[in-house]
Amino acid sequence: MRKPVIAGNWKMYKLLSEAVETALALKPSVANANHCEVVIAPVFVHLKTVADRLEGSNILVAAQNCAPEAKQSANTGEVSAEMLKDVGASHVIIGHSERRQFYCETDESVNKKTKAALQSGLTAIVCVGESLAERESEKLFEVVEIQVRGSLGGLTVSDMERIIIAYEPVWAIGTGKTATPEQAQEMHGFIRKILAETHGGETADKIRILYGGSVKPENIKDLMNQTDIDGALVGGASLEAESFAKIVN
Ligand code: PGA
């Protein structure tokens, strides 16, 4: 049985006081959620404060990115996975479509960052997903296959224990257009098939594949009813404790 993961991606939306306020509001409202893992991802500069305030709760903290270099080194402006772990993060989101689109991330950089995250003891939430043009030209499976294989290249079966995949069709992110549960399931099943090819069926069966893209309290149930959907990466609806808690619960 795969334990579901509900992860909230706060992107660059909150000031420190707002991040703390939301985290503290969330704490009691998801305290009984033993059926899933709950993760929130504040910006780098809020990680330590938020992680400290959530200590002893069932909410885990993720970063939204990390450097491809695992160790302290001369890389001005970057933050290593080791540093994220050091301030209380347990997870890191890697290769989100906004980073692929606006910050030149490639499968190669995603692969390096994923390896750095694993080396530092973090769990990596690796994002993949096709654009609208790629879906409309029926290239979606080809594109996602290249992303999955490229992002996870060189990872061992034991590395895969700390990998979570997030399938986020770019056209569904922040647009209010969710993939239908059937469209999402089709891709999740396809991704699991690729994982079975790269790392074997037993490993593929254990990996959590999250759906992301306009997930809300109203559509989470239908998405979670699909065989290969093991949770969600939530943007907009994670910004308010109340709606995020509804999704978790
Ligand atoms: P959304 O964002 O839920 O606002 O569509 C999802 C994401 O970007 O991870």
Entry keywords:
249 residues, alpha/beta, eight-stranded parallel beta barrel, 16% strand, binds 2-phosphoglycolic acid
How would you sum up this structure, described in words?
The protein has 249 residues and is of the alpha/beta class. The protein is 41% helix and 16% strand. It is built from 11 helices and 8 strands. An 8-stranded parallel beta barrel has the order 1-2-3-4-5-6-7-8, surrounded by 5 helices. The radius of gyration is 17 Å and the shape is globular. The mean pLDDT is 97. The site of 2-phosphoglycolic acid has 13 residues, from strand 8.
Count of individual helical segments = 11
The main sheet orders its strands as 1-2-3-4-5-6-7-8
Apparent shape? globular
Measured between the Cα atoms of the first and last residue, the distance is 19 Å
